[in-house]
Amino acid sequence: MSNVLRLLMVEDSEADTWLIVRELQRAGFRPEFERVETAGAMRDALEAHPWDLIISDYSMPLFGGPAALALYHEKGLDIPFISVSGVIGETTAVEMMKAGAHDYLMKDHLVRLAPAVTRELRAAQERRVNKQAEAARAHLAAIVQSCDDAIVSQTLDGTILSWNPGAERLYGYTALEIIGRSISVLVPPDRPGELPKIFEMLKRGEPIEGFETVRVGKDGRPIEVMVTISPIKDDAGNFAGASSVAHSISRRKQEERERQRLIQELTEALARVKTLSGLLPICSSCKKIRNDDGYWEQVETYIKEHSQAEFTHSLCPDCAKLFFPEFQPAPAAEWEAGAKPETRMPKAEGNPKSEA
User: How far is residue 256's CA from residue 217's CA, in Å, rounded to a whole number?
Assistant: First the structure.
C-alpha cells in the first residue's frame, strides 16, 4: 500500500497530534493530516476530502470520541477509526469498540499505533475489495436473472446447479424442479453420445460456440436451440463444470424448412415445364409436324405435349369467308372509328321485314 496516509486527527492538543504524527513517520508512513476539535470542523473536513484514517481523542472539552464516532457512522464511512486517550479505562474502551471503533490505544503506549494502523488499513482494503466483488456478483446475478436466454450451470457429472428464468421459459421446468437433476433430462434419446463429446471438449479447454442441437422440453416437445458452452474452472485452474447459454432457433429452422419446401416445389414445377426449340419439321401442305418418334401429328397435339399451352378453336376472317360465304364481317373503317361494329347477314328472300 502507499506510504502516503491521509489522516484526520480529532484532537484538541496540538502537541499530542505531533506525537502521533511522528510515531507514524517513524513507522514509514508519510501522513498528510488535518486536525479538528469540533463537530462542525470534523463534518466540514469529511465533506471536503477523502481520508484513509481517523484517529480521535476520547475526551475533549468541546467534542469527544463517542460524538466523533457517531458522526463517522452518520457519514457511512468504511475507513479505520482508532480511539486514543490518556485516561480511558478498559470498560470505556470496550464500549467504544462495541460502538464501531476499530481499535483503541493509550497515549503513553503509542508503540502499538503503527501496527494497529497497518492492520486496519489492510482490513479496510480487503473490505473494499470484497464489497466490489459482491457488487459485481450481484450485478452479474441480475444480468443472468433478466436475460431472455437460458443460462444453466452444471457439475462435471452433469448435475444442474443453476437455472435462470430464461431457462424456465425455454424448457418449461422451474428452478425448483430441475436443480439437482442431470442435464441429460434435456437431451433427446436419439442423441446419446452428444453430452460425453461435449464434456470431452470442455475438459480440453475448448469452448463450444454456436452449436445447433435439439433439446426436450418438460412437455416432451423437441426444441431446436443454439448453445454456447464454456468450461468452469476452480481456483487451481482445473475443470470443475460447465455453463451454457441457449436460445431457441425453432422459428428460424421452421422458416428455413419452409423456404426449402418452396424451392423444391418450384424446382419440380420448372422441371415439368417443357419448351420448344430447334428445327421443327412441318408439312407445307397439311401443316402436320413430325414428332420425336418420326410420326406426323397435328400441330396442336405436338405443341401441347411439348409446352404448357392449351388450345381453343375459332375461325379467322379468311376461313369464315371460305367456308361461310354468307358471312359478311363489318368493314374495317367501323373498327377504326371506335364504333361497335355489327355483322351484316344477307337478306333472306321473301322476308317482309328485311325488305323494310
Answer: 22
Do 4-135 and 148-252 have matching folds?
no
Q: pTM higher than 0.70, yes or no?
A: no
Nearest-angstrom CA–CA distance, 169 and 243: 18
| Number of CB atoms found within 10 A of residue 243's CB | 17
Calpha distance 297→283 (Å, rounded): 10
Distances (CA, A) of 34 to 1, 47, 50, 287: 21, 13, 12, 119
Cell of 189: 434419446
Residue where the block lists cell 405436338: 302
DSSP 345: P
Hunting for cell 358471312 — which residue is that?
327
Helix (H/G/I), strand (E/B), else coil: 313: coil
Which grid cell sits at 122? 489492510
List pLDDT tens digits, range 261-299: 888 887 876 676 556 666 778 887 777 888 778 888 887
49 vs 41: CA distance, rounded Å: 12
Domain spans of the chain?
Answer: 4-135, 148-252, 317-351
Mean pLDDT is lowest, of 136-150, 228-242, 292-306, for 292-306
CA separation, residue 176 to residues 152, 164, 165, 244, 270 (Å)? 13, 11, 11, 19, 56
Residue whose C-alpha is closest to residue 208's, from 186, 192, 225, 189 = 225
Using CB atoms within 10 A of its CB, is residue 310 exposed (0-12), middle (13-18) or buried (19+)?
exposed
| Cα–Cα nearest to 137, from 162, 100, 174, 159 | 162
Which three-class secondary structure state does DSSP give residue 67? helix
Beta bridge partners of 85: 106
Fold (CATH) for 148-252:
Beta-Lactamase (3.30.450)
Instruction: Give me the CATH topology for the region 4-135.
Output: Rossmann fold (3.40.50)
Per-residue pLDDT, 273 = 59
Main-chain phi, psi angles of 228, to 5 degrees: -115, 125
Q: CA–CA separation, 114 vs 235, rounded Å?
A: 34
Mean confidence (pLDDT) of the chain:
83
C-alpha dihedral, 148 to 144 to 249 to 170, nearest 10°: -70
Query: What three-state secondary structure class fits 299?
Result: helix
